[in-house]
Design the sequence.
């Protein structure tokens, strides 16, 4: 396992895309902190960046990487190694690389501008969202044999969570606005990791007062310790379940 | 020459004799009880109360007297009685600690109640844990100044107002600190009065509440963390200058709530960190000028029932929504305001933007219809919607604009 992980890590770290991703994130972070005059505003902009760019890069990169290393995987399979070991090593290799890129890019400006206390949620959110979308990328790439179709699907999934899901939520809110939909909405928001993270951060910013009754319900739920723990648990589920399904498929698949 | 000296000495010495007797109350003094001292006093006498705890039930003041406390004597209502009832003109009360008045919803007992009197001064007292703090009814030309009024109300129905004024005229309420009451200061049918430099903190309902009160003015007060800062309802010509509305944050919290009022002037105020800075409903011909709105959820909510209000030369900074409304008719004017979200240009450098500013965002309109849509606040889709709406306005009213926004902070 260690040997395979090592090989994969070396391979990914040499990848130009990861280096470009690090530089891009770092540049974005620095410019946000230099340009925004108030610290909280900068953190909010960071949150937007995090909820848009990181999922896209994570899902696309992991999907493409799996497709590109299909020959390498086949080679490994010819060796006396357990299948699950290969797949798990691949997953951890990608997670470690992208997280390293994220943390290296984001920590220095946070430290320098002294927002590390407030930014803990953002940091945690970034880490979770990276893992979740790599996991989803694994599921997509194992289900689609065709590379073009796989990349297309991952783009679509990203678009769905980043944009279409919100449209759906808005639609539901307007159609069923006259009914007590607050509690169901808490459940609905759990169906999208991006939304879940955004709402959690909103509650930290105390925007709940602007939502009227819904805000009270949401604050009651997301503001409490239990709610926070449940939310984190759901996010971890989001990271685990797609990967575990893909692992199951990989074990049985005739490559 | 001698006659001149006589006249002069009469003029100078006369006040000494006219001024009433000095009566002292306390242990070791002529009187042990405040009520007995009051009964024995002649009009315009001065009663000095020494330090100590006085439990005398209800104390009635029925003649013009000056009552001065020395070392904060505690006058206690034992949670049963109204502490002071004043039914005389020219009464002055100063330096007392009035505490634990009774609780009753029928006759509203207070720490100090003034009934049908004139020229009463209530000054530098400490009113502590009373149902109502100072209660003025059918009174004129009274002054309530420099008092510290504090209670520990938890629910609206369990607690009275800090300073309650009813059917009165020409009052001056200044330099008071009021905390934990229902309304900090309450005005009902009170005209030609002024409220200066008070500080109302953490009151359950409103910091300051006007009902049916005309021609009043309040200036330089600070309202912090109340259920809502100030509510002005069913009144005319109430002027509001240089007040600070701070952190009135919550589900139904406003900095300033205006309902069915007209012809007032709101100028030089600061609205910071309120859920809604100014909420206007049925509000006509108000001038809103040179105020500063920053870090509010909504800087202003102007309902469609408002007409002919002028919103001029205000600064809008870092608010989530600048303005929102619930209709499509536009009957109010915006002019020369500074909006931090304005992205237009100024080619001729006259300090006025060349393109109009639209204070109403698409998302603002959506949230007005379904408040729960705030759930999507800061999402990518909302960003896209707002941007496209900016370029091609479809949902937001066409004329809801500031045609000449200021480029610089006013």
Sequence:
């Amino acid at each position: 396992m260690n040997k395979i992980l090592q090989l994969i890590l070396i391979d990914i770290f040499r990848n130009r895309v990861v280096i470009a991703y690090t530089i891009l994130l770092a540049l974005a972070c620095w410019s946000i902190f230099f340009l925004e005059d108030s610290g909280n505003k900068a953190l909010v902009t960071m949150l937007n960046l995090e909820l848009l760019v990181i999922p896209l890069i994570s899902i696309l990169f992991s999907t493409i990487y799996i497709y590109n290393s299909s020959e390498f995987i086949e080679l490994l399979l010819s060796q006396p190694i357990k299948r699950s070991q290969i797949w798990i090593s691949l997953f951890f290799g990608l997670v470690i690389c992208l997280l390293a890129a994220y943390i290296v890019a984001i920590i220095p400006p946070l430290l320098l501008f002294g927002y590390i206390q407030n930014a803990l949620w953002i940091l945690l959110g970034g880490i979770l969202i990276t893992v979740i979308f790599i996991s989803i990328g694994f599921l997509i790439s194992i289900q689609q044999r065709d590379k073009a179709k796989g990349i297309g699907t991952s783009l679509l999934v990203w678009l769905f969570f980043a944009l279409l899901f919100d449209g759906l939520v808005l639609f539901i809110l307007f159609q069923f606005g006259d009914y007590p939909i607050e509690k169901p909405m808490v459940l609905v928001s759990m169906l999208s990791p991006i939304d879940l993270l955004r709402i959690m951060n909103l509650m930290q910013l105390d925007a709940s007062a602007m939502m009227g009754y819904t805000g009270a319900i949401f604050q009651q739920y997301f503001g409490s310790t239990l709610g926070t723990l449940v939310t984190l648990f759901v996010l971890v589920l989001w990271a685990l379940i797609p990967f575990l399904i893909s692992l199951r498929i990989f074990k049985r698949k005739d490559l | 020459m001698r006659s001149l000296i006589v006249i002069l000495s009469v003029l100078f010495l006369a006040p000494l004799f006219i001024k009433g007797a000095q009566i002292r109350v306390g242990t070791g003094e002529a009187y042990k009880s405040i009520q007995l001292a009051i009964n024995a006093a002649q009009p315009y006498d001065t009663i000095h109360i020494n330090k100590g705890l006085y439990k005398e039930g209800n104390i009635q003041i029925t003649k013009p007297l000056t009552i001065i406390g020395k070392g904060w004597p505690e006058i206690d209502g034992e949670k049963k009685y109204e502490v002071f009832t004043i039914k005389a003109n020219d009464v002055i009360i100063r330096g007392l600690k009035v505490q634990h008045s009774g609780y009753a919803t029928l006759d509203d007992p207070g720490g100090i109640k003034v009934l049908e009197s004139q020229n009463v001064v209530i000054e530098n007292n400490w009113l502590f844990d009373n149902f109502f703090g100072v209660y003025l009814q059918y009174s004129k030309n009274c002054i309530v100044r420099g008092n510290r009024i504090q209670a520990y109300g938890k629910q609206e129905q369990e607690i009275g107002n800090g300073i309650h004024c009813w059917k009165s005229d020409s009052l001056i309420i200044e330099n008071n600190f009021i905390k934990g009451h229902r309304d900090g200061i309450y005005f009902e049918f009170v005209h030609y009065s002024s409220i200066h430099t008070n500080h109302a903190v953490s009151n359950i309902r409103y910091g300051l509440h006007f009902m049916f009160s005309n021609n009043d003015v309040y200036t330089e007060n600070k309202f912090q963390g109340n259920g809502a800062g100030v509510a002005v309802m069913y009144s005319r010509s109430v002027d509001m200058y240089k007040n600070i509305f701070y952190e009135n944050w919550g589900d139904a919290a406003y900095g300033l709530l205006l309902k069915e009022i007209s012809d007032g002037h709101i100028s030089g105020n600061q609205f910071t960190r309120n859920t809604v800075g100014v909420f206007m409903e049925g509000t006509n011909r108000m001038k809103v000028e040179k105020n500063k709105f920053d870090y509010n959820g909504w800087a202003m909510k102007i309902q469609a029932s408002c007409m002919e209000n002028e919103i001029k030369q205000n600064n809008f900074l870092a608010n989530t929504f600048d303005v929102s409304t619930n209709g499509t008719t536009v009957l109010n004017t915006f002019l020369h305001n500074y909006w931090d979200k304005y992205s237009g240009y100024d080619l001729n450098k006259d300090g006025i933007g060349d393109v109009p500013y639209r204070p109403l965002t698409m998302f603002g309109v959506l949230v007005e219809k379904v408040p729960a849509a705030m759930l999507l606040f800061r999402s990518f889709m909302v960003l896209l919607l707002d941007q496209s709406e900016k370029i091609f306005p479809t949902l937001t009213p066409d004329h809801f604009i500031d045609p000449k926004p200021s480029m610089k902070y006013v």
